[in-house]
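Work Package 3 (structural annotation) set out to generate three-dimensional models for the target panel prioritized at the project kickoff. During this period the team completed the workflow that converts sequence records into discrete structure tokens, so that structures can be stored uniformly alongside our sequence database. As a representative example, we reproduce one entry of 399 residues exactly as it appears in the project archive.
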Amino acid sequence: MGKALIIGAGGVASVCIHKCCQNPDVFEEICIASRTKSKCDALKAKLDGGRTKISTAQVNADNVDELVALINEFNPDVVVNLALPYQDLTIMDACLATKTNYVDTANYEPLDTAKFEYKWQWAYRERFEQAGITALLGSGFDPGVTGVFSAYAMKHHFDEINYIDILDCNAGDHGYPFATNFNPEINIREVSANGSYIEDGKWIETEPMEIKRVYNFPEIGEKDMYLLHHEELESLALNIKGIKRIRFFMTFGQSYLTHLKCLENVGMTSIEPIEFEGNQIVPLQFLKAVLPDPASLGPRTKGKTNIGCIFIGKKDGKEKTYYLYNVCDHEECYKEVGSQAVSYTTGVPAMIGAAMLLTGKWNKPGVHNIEEFDPDPFMDDLNKFGLPWKESFSPDLVE
């Protein structure tokens, strides 16, 4: 069906590439590209021999000219950006220059500011539309599947949705006193930023971890969860009819929070450069280098994740509540693709989003968030490729 250039060779990219190879009718050929080509070669060595043809390349995703040269050489139908969020705009620039479709899993972040919003990528709307190509933003789980869940709920269960609570629970145990389940730099920036939610069309800001709730997650049990800012709030509030309030909660264990507070107190989570022995270093980037690599957590992580959305709205004039979620088992993910469930729940939707564009099931030139497309084929593929969804019409509600 087509060719995909996958930029990145970390845990999420590994899952995405495994899943592309499980879907060879769509992914006839893929090229894995990263700054470190040896990582790409290692993934190719694992997966070579199937129907999907695999090649590798070295590329600096900060360099538009290098990206353009690689895209022109490989001539993909879609570029799947699984690099760092700081690199979204250079990769989008290269896609625009070569008129190639684009998919990512997280919104652009400036390197020097912990800022999570879509304005930089939404500024590309007209240029992508005029070029006749599609940029699909946020095809991970959250953002990603949570947006598809919202579109599915809107299409099949509601006339309007007034309240959305997105709940992200990771009950996995990797045995380390402190480690992050995805890129430490991105994870810690996200968690240490101020929280916020949208109510009555306005952003309401909170202190980091200020709002705590306890929720009884299906198949997991009661867990402490905290309100965070998360990028999909911004797009869902625009794209889902009737929104009065939308919030995002994530679970954290006490050991994680205690270690994080200590690291914050001594300045290790700062993104401001400091001078150390004659060199400029960013403390958070140094911390990332000494923490366990998230890709190494797979063989030691046990337990499950539960990520989903609780919707409250109206159907035929009556109030209705609906909970749509996925439960994913860390050990089962490792058996299948050699990764823990956090990478799995992001890598699978990245493959599905790219498949939607390659098959033409989604075709809308411009820059679009995932909830702007028909959710049904994506929901079908979630069941087919390892992230089956479940639903409840009488969930516990969050205060």
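The first helix runs from residue 11 to 21.
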